[in-house]
Amino acid sequence: MSDDTRIPLAGVIGSPIAHSKSPRLHGYWLERYGLSGFYIPMDIAQSDLEDAIRAMPKLGFVGINVTVPHKESVLNLADLVTDRAALIGAANTLIFRKDGKIHADNTDGYGFIENLRQTASAWQPKSGPAAVIGAGGAARAVIASLLETGVPELRISNRTRTRAEALRSEFGAKVVVYDWVQAGNMLEDAVTVVNTTSLGMVGKPNLRVPLDGLSPKAVVSDLVYTPLQTSFLQRAAEFGCTTVDGLGMLLHQAAPAFERWFGIRPEVDDGLRQVMLA
Ligand code: ATR
Fold first, then answer.
1. 14-44 pLDDT tens trace
2. Disulfide engineering: 233 pairs with which of 47, 74, 217, 243, CB 3.0-4.6 Å?
3. How far is the CA of 6 from the centre of ligand 1 (A)?
4. Residues 140 and 265 in one domain
């Protein structure tokens, strides 16, 4: 069958995958722009990863999103890896090109920055330090994108200090590590503050970092989006800070992938947010 007559398929692979909100997100855009195409969740075991990915272009897939636990391993299967995916050490998007090559990208950092820019229009990341709480996979994308945006100093605090130190070795001299018990100290003068840990998520304890040092001028963001308004964001709002919830990052990271697969740059608007929250 020729490419032109095929209905384009996309989807998200992970394990587990039932919780993923991406099918709803891409499904909304496909319908809104009247495109023929499908986006489906696929639970794929690590041992089947390569076989599954190699088969997808033959089945009509134009690309896929990748989530836990495959984000790192897919880099080894790609023919081309973008600089940002290589820097982060993980991909969230694969594009199956017409020439048969697999292109791996990571749009998480882009989604994070775009969400802040759109929600906090006065945000000036270059005007002062950024403080990142956590040093896991999500933190890597946030750190890479903040450094690319030109933050003068990037502070990290993580319960397991060695993980934060590993990020300093990798991301260089602008990174300063703070001890977990002193995480509150790194908020002083920070213009950007981000929680990248899972603390505050439904079913997890709240993030209890003291906010006394926080400036009301800081833009405070949380990657957690269930609930949308975490206790961390609530406390920051009480300090007078502009707060940015985590749902927008999910929406914005998806836009460049959708464009690459389906040919239209989709809009992230309030209608989409409402659908995602329903
Ligand atoms: P992700 O890819 O979502 O970032 P991850 O790599 O497992 O997932 O990282 C989770 C982050 O949340 C880490 O920074 C983790 O701290 P550790 O490196 O010390 O594990 C942090 N985290 C999770 N539960 C935590 C808790 N109860 N207290 C403090 N930090 C926690």
1. 999 999 999 999 999 999 999 999 999 999 9
2. 243
3. 42
4. no
**Is the CB–ligand 1 distance for residue 186 below 6 Å?**
no
Q: Is any atom of ligand 1 closer than 6 Å to the C-beta of 227?
A: no
Going by C-alpha positions, the residue among 64, 58, 51 that lies closest to residue 20 is 64
Tokens in use for 171?
A: 């991301």
Note whether 12 and 125 are same-domain residues.
no
Q: Is residue 6 within 8 Å of 60, Cβ to Cβ? A: yes
Cβ proximity of 177 and 133 under 8 Å: no
Beta strand 93-96 with 102-105 is antiparallel
End-to-end distance of the chain based on CA atoms, in angstroms?
Answer: 39
Q: What is the band of 3 on the pLDDT scale with cuts at 50, 70, 90?
A: low
Ligand 1 close to Cβ of residue 161 (< 6 A): no
How would residue 5 be classed by pLDDT, with cut points 50, 70 and 90? confident
Residues 115, 89, single domain; the answer is no
Q: Whose CA is nearest to atom 11 of ligand 1?
A: 197
Answering whether pTM is above 0.90, one says yes
Kindly report, residue by residue over 71-105, the tens digit of the pLDDT: 999 999 999 999 999 999 999 999 999 999 999 99
Tokens standing for 84?
A: 């940002």
